[in-house]
Amino acid sequence: MEYIERELERKFKEADAFFKAVLVTGARQVGKSTMLKHLAEKQNRTVVTMDNDLARELAKSDPVLFFQTYKPPILIDEIQKAPELLEQIKIMCDDSEERGRFWLTGSQRKKLMERSRDTLAGRLGILKLYGLSQREKNKALHPDELDFSMGALSGRAGMMPENDIDAVFEHIRRGGYPDVMNANDEQMRLYYQSYIENYLIADAVNDEGISDVVSFRRFLRVCAALIGNLVNYKTLADTAGISVPTARKWLDILQDMDVVYLLEPYSNNELQRLAKTPKLYFCDTGLCAFLTRWLTVGSLRDGAANGHFFENYVVMELVKNYAYSPKTAMLSFYRDSNANEIDVFVEEDGKIHPLEIKMSANPDKKQIKKYAVLEKTTIEKSHGGIICMVPRPFPIDRENSLIPCNLI
Fold first, then answer.
1. Which residues contact 330 (CB under 8 A, 6 or more apart)?
2. Which end of the chain has fewer beta carbons closer than 10 Å to its terminal beta carbon, N or C?
3. What is the pLDDT of residue 330?
4. In whole numbers, what is the pLDDT of the chain averaged over residues?
């Protein structure tokens, strides 16, 4: 299968030149080890996976002998299965000034993150990889950082085909796991069924101690049906047939496994009576579509949940963009006690870019009037607009534009 260049590669190389060890986290099967193995092809780098029973047993029982057997520079895949190696990695980092000596991958786990930060503080760079973005699939990695000004959007549009609703919903339906990119419909369904059973359920049982597999599988489907909604633990619990504390615990586990993404509400002392509950999204829309049985482009595009899937898609494209960007940005949404809502705030460099998300090629431009809420504060508002199905960027006013979703 042809290798697909990942946007995280640029950031990984920066971290590799600076830190003695770099950890790439993310959900199972998003391409962490594939990316690192590709980058290691021209290096004399040892590669070992903790899925190998013998290697894992040696790592757990004798970390010193492990590194005599598998010498650095090294790529260790699925490090969360042998956290005993972290203390020895710390010792070896302290004995050498060599940068990028240890490349690690791990499916996100709170215990792994806490232990690696505690053990390798100052020595370890941590990056997150998500499933394939639409930009990666289209081999259209933009050299410039995302800018919501009309001029910058027009420049991006010159490198992309016009927005197309079927292409967008094909991306949504297929999702971002590299292994399904060339799969036919039957193969894709088999892949997702296998992914749920062999990874999600197995990890929930083996790593998290969940014993009620039937209820957990049902809880997964309930979460998928509620994307784009404020998290309501009672609704999740009642629909899945579990207790509220269990719903809270299981949603935390799904977030830790990078199955779901929780978009937090904006918080600011100048804006009172703001929502305190996050909104629920899936990190991979293909997995979500499979769980909710929207299995074709047509059913997704024309079905009752199309707006929610479109919003999930846009939010995760933004998440991926800023995860890989040199810029640091905080993503949130705005909602007050009167149910006035703005879908996304992108907060960077002390400025807020307000964004609405509409699955329309001709959205109501009056939506931007909601952005006036920021004028009542000292917060600096910058370029924003409405992310939608418009074919090309179009100005609404001096600060806001209609933004084609395929430019994000």
1. 345, 346, 347, 348
2. N
3. 95
4. 93
- Domains annotated for the chain, with CATH where assigned, are 8-128 (3.40.50.300), 134-407 (no CATH)
* DSSP β-bridge partners for residue 344: 355
Instruction: Enter the pTM of the model.
Output: 0.94
Give the integer Cα–Cα distance in Å for 226 and 282. 10
d(CA 308, CA 295): 15
User: Tell me: the pLDDT tens digits for 28-70?
Assistant: 999 999 999 999 988 889 999 998 999 999 999 999 999 999 9
CB atoms within 10 A of CB 374: 21
- What is the CB-side half-sphere exposure of residue 375 using CA atoms within 13 A? 5
* Tokens 């760079």 belong to residue: 125
User: What is the C-alpha separation between 366 and 136, in angstroms, rounded?
Assistant: 33
Of 99, 145, 98, nearest in space to 125 by CA: 99
What tokens appear for 355 in the block? Answer: 């964004």
Residue 143: pLDDT over 80? no
SS3 call for 387: strand
Instruction: Identify whether the C-beta of residue 405 lies closer than 8 Å to the C-beta of residue 393.
Output: no
- Between helix 165-174 and helix 285-292 the angle, nearest 10°, is 80
206 CB-side CA count, 13 A: 10
CA angle 188, 193, 195 (to 5 degrees): 90
Q: How far is it, in rounded angstroms, from Cα 145 to Cα 155?
A: 12
Q: What tens digit of pLDDT does each residue of 62-90 get?
A: 999 999 999 999 999 999 999 999 999 99
